[in-house]
Design goal:
This protein is mostly helical and about 90 residues long. The protein has five helices and no strands. The chain has one domain. The longest helix has 12 residues.
């Protein structure tokens, strides 16, 4: 995660090792990470950046996250959908 922040601070392309990406993805989404990424058309780096607030989530993406019933760890990030209204 620090590599993402360091890259942003240095105006460089973000980087993340595959091993680190796997650990963070598992933490954020459990075993469903690849399925969620596929449904949204995201690569692993994009998913991690969006899930941690380093890249904005569009309304269409937020709608798809709600449809998939994705529940992120609480990092104080609002994703634009209200889970409390789900039946």
């Amino acid at each position: 995660m620090h590599g993402l922040d360091l890259a942003a601070a240095l105006s460089r392309d973000p980087w993340l090792t595959r091993e680190a990406g796997d650990v963070v993805e598992e933490l954020l989404l459990g075993a469903t990470g690849a399925q969620v990424r596929d449904a949204l058309g995201w690569d692993q780096l994009t998913m991690i950046r969006k899930a941690t607030g380093r890249e904005p989530v569009s309304q269409a993406e937020a709608d798809e996250l709600a449809r998939l019933d994705v529940q992120w760890l609480a990092f104080g990030i609002e994703f634009g959908y209200d889970r409390s209204s789900r039946a």
